[in-house]
Write a structure and sequence with these properties.
The chain is built from no helices and eleven strands. It has 117 residues and is an all-beta fold. The strands form two sheets. Strands 2, 4, 5, 6, 9, 10 and 11 form a seven-stranded mixed β-sheet that branches. A four-stranded antiparallel β-sheet has the order 1-3-8-7, with no helix packed on it. β5 and β6 form a beta hairpin.
Length: 117
């Protein structure tokens, strides 16, 4: 699976962005796809995840503000980010792993999200 992340940018606090993770080579509906982020000087953290069965999970820090979704026809996973805060500033990565897999074998290149106060 090849993953292409896009949609990052500079936005003011309270604004919105939608990130896209477009896949080629395999069908994302057969994978768990996760958005991670890493801020400068901090460890990478999970932001949101959608399983092959379309079950979703969110980090506490983004619950109620972010929504992960998948468009099977476009083979793309989205992360809609609303009410953005400066602390959401990070490089966002999408990654995918197969059913039952313990590790994420497929990673996108990352997209920068910067939220100004």
């Amino acid at each position: 699976v090849q993953l292409q992340a896009s949609g990052g940018g500079l936005v003011q606090a309270g604004g919105s962005l939608r990130l896209s993770c477009a896949a080629s080579g395999r069908t994302l509906s057969s994978y768990t796809t996760t958005w991670f982020r890493q801020a400068p000087g901090k460890e990478r953290e999970i932001v949101a995840r959608i399983t092959w069965a379309a079950n979703s999970y969110y980090a506490d820090s983004v619950k109620g503000r972010f929504t992960i979704s998948r468009d099977n026809a476009k083979n793309t996973v989205y992360l809609q980010m609303n009410s953005l805060k400066p602390e959401d500033t990070a490089i966002y990565y999408c990654a995918a792993k197969g059913v039952g897999a313990g590790t994420y074998d497929y990673w996108g290149q990352g997209t920068q999200v910067t939220v100004s106060s």
